[in-house]
């Protein structure tokens, strides 16, 4: 039976929880072992160097009451076990004065196979941006891979991979709209640019869905909002500027953008070649 796809309509905290470790768990509980905490060591290549003290204490309190519900994933390293996934649980278990933790011992060969499977999964053409982002997150957090290393393995630019993982920071409503294909990845990035203004994120999402805004219109709204314009003003400017740039773009035969600054702004004209530039200049000089 095929594995059920993870739900993407949940909060970010749930989405990025230790549940992601399920992808590297053995289905049979026979492989779960009780290991001494003192026999376990953190991975020196773990990218996360700081752990929130309050969150660790809260997890420790939970472990005291309920135990560790999700086994750690470890590999043998001499006389010790090196953590692959679950260092936060291991630290919290120590705070909770536990002597043993549940763990699954994986061989390096097994982990290499799982890592390769995740990389192949990201490269599937039918995978949504959010599903790709989740797979990248697993590689980053559970296999101690830096984004640059993941990008190299996938043959993509580091900025592309970084932008992909940022999609997991979308609010629930926008993440669901992206999952359903109601908004594009470009729309999502415009919404993400307003992450310090969650109310405005919802306003932008509503305008995209209800008014059929293009990515450029979404970016214009985000820019106006970050300059301090209220929603009505930002929506009005977006609509007016879209009409203006569309009209001018048709007359000049190129893409036109308006970029606002603190004192005025810029009118940006795109050209694809020296010949194209000459055509645009010629049209401007002739009065369009």
How would you characterize this protein structure?
The protein is of the alpha/beta class. The chain has a domain at 12-106: Conserved hypothetical protein from pyrococcus furiosus pfu- 392566-001, ParB domain (Alpha-Beta Complex). The chain is built from 13 helices and seven strands. The protein has a five-stranded mixed beta sheet with strand order 1-5-3-4-2, covered by helices on one side. It has a two-stranded antiparallel sheet with strand order 6-7. Helix 2 crosses helix 3 (87-95), helix 6 crosses helix 7 and helix 11 packs across helix 12 (231-252). The protein is elongated and about 80 Å long. It starts with 11 loop residues before the first helix and ends with a helix.
Gist of the model:
By secondary structure, the chain is an alpha/beta fold.
Key descriptive features of the protein:
single chain; 288 residues; 13 helices; elongated; Conserved hypothetical protein from pyrococcus furiosus pfu- 392566-001, ParB domain; alpha/beta; five-stranded mixed β-sheet
Write the layout of secondary structure elements.
Blueprint: H1 12-15, E1 32-36, E2 40-41, H2 53-66, E3 72-77, E4 80-85, H3 87-95, E5 100-105, H4 108-122, H5 129-142, H6 147-154, H7 158-166, H8 172-179, H9 185-192, H10 198-211, H11 215-226, H12 231-252, E6 256-261, E7 264-269, H13 274-285
Parallel strand pairs: 2-4, 3-5
Antiparallel strand pairs: 1-5, 3-4, 6-7
Helix pairs in contact: 2-3, 4-5, 5-7, 6-7, 9-11, 10-11, 11-12
């Amino acid at each position: 039976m095929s594995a059920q796809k993870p739900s993407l309509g949940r909060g970010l905290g749930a989405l990025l929880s230790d549940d992601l470790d399920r992808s590297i768990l053995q289905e049979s509980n026979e492989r779960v072992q009780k290991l001494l905490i003192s026999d376990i060591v953190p991975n020196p290549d773990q990218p996360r160097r700081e752990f929130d003290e309050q969150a660790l204490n809260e997890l420790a309190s939970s472990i005291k009451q309920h135990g560790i519900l999700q086994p750690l994933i470890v590999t043998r390293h001499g006389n010790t076990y090196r953590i692959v996934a679950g260092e936060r649980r291991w630290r919290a278990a120590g705070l909770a004065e536990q002597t043993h933790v549940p763990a699954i011992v994986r061989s390096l060969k097994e982990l290499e196979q799982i890592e390769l499977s995740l990389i192949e999964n990201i490269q599937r053409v039918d995978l949504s941006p959010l599903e790709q982002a989740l797979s990248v997150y697993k590689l980053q957090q559970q296999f101690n891979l830096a984004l640059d290393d993941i990008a190299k393995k996938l043959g993509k630019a580091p900025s592309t991979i970084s932008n992909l993982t940022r999609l997991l920071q979308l609010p629930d409503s926008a993440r669901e709209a992206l999952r359903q294909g109601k908004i594009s990845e470009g729309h999502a990035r415009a919404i993400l640019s307003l992450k310090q203004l969650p109310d405005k994120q919802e306003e932008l999402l509503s305008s995209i869905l209800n008014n059929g805004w293009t990515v450029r219109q979404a970016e214009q709204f985000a820019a106006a909002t970050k300059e301090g314009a209220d929603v009505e003003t930002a929506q009005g400017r977006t609509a007016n500027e879209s009409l203006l740039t569309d009209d001018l773009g048709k007359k000049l035969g190129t893409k036109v953008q308006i970029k606002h600054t603190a004192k005025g702004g810029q009118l940006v004209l795109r050209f694809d070649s020296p010949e194209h530039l000459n055509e645009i200049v010629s049209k401007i000089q002739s009065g369009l």
